[in-house]
UniProtKB/TrEMBL annotation:
GO terms for cellular component: plasma membrane. It catalyses: ATP + protein L-histidine = ADP + protein N-phospho-L-histidine. Pfam families: HATPase_c (PF02518). Residues 14-227 form the Histidine kinase domain. The keyword tRNA processing does not apply. The keyword Ubl conjugation does not apply. GO terms for biological process: cellular response to phosphate starvation. It comes from Pseudoalteromonas denitrificans DSM 6059. This is histidine kinase. Its EC number is 2.7.13.3. One of its GO terms (molecular function) is phosphoprotein phosphatase activity. InterPro entries: BphY/WalK/GraS-like, HATPase_C_sf, HATPase_dom, His_kinase_dom.
Length: 227
């Protein structure tokens, strides 16, 4: 029985990785089609929505793959120095089709030449999932800020939507359990964010996330802190 469980686990991990690659190719194909053909507003909107939904599924698969690897003690961290403005610009580029179609204003405010040490793939996927969620619920604007505070990197993602529901504004989001995960896809995303943030350590200091409402835009505020 144990061998069968190990085999199934291996197949599951390989299948998720293969599906992730296929979805990435599909996203690239949609981008190519969007650039090459002439289409009316309705077709453009439909393509943007398809692109958005595939991106959400791809993000979900990346999270499941990371959780699978973490459960099997095989989640590697490739920590290197990265410039924040380059990473944020790439986030906007990934979602450009949906952003343009919805007419959402996306801006960032980052300290000049701000760079930090972290795993680019994991952190960019974490932030992209929050951005994708914000794109769904914002009214007109999303703002990303990044700055150094007390020897920590603090990244905030703000929107002008209705904000997070009260039940999500927990004092410690990292105390989420299986019940909270089953409530929505957002629960999985926040659990993933907590896991990845906590995996980044420096001098016994761990990364963390926090949720809030209000701020300059009056909507939801996602906060990521990395040591």
């Amino acid at each position: 029985m144990q061998d069968s469980e190990i085999d199934f686990s291996t197949v599951l991990g390989a299948s998720m990785h293969d599906m992730k690659n296929s979805l990435c190719m599909l996203l690239q194909s949609i981008d190519t089609i969007n650039d090459k053909i002439d289409h009316d507003d309705r077709t453009r909107a439909e393509l943007a929505q398809i692109h958005y939904e595939i991106a959400r599924v791809n993000s979900n698969l990346l999270q499941l793959l990371a959780l699978y690897r973490n459960n099997n003690k095989s989640l590697p961290l490739n920590v290197e120095e990265h410039y924040l403005d380059e990473m944020i610009e790439e986030l906007w580029a990934k979602n450009e089709m949906y952003i343009d179609n919805k007419g959402i204003s996306c801006e960032y405010e980052i300290e000049e030449d701000l760079a930090w040490f972290f795993d680019l793939d994991l952190i960019s996927n974490l932030l992209n999932d929050i951005v994708v969620n914000a794109l769904r619920y914002t009214h007109t604007k999303i703002l990303i800020t990044a700055k150094k505070i007390n020897n920590m990197l603090e990244i905030q993602i703000l929107d002008d939507g209705k904000g997070y529901p009260e039940h999500m504004l927990l004092p410690n989001v990292d105390k989420m359990n299986a019940a909270s995960l089953s409530q929505s896809r957002t629960g999985l995303g926040l659990y993933f964010a907590t896991l990845i943030a906590d995996a980044h350590t420096n001098n016994n200091c761990h990364g963390s996330i926090n949720l809030n409402n209000g701020g300059n835009l009056g909507g939801s505020i996602f906060i990521l802190r990395l040591p």
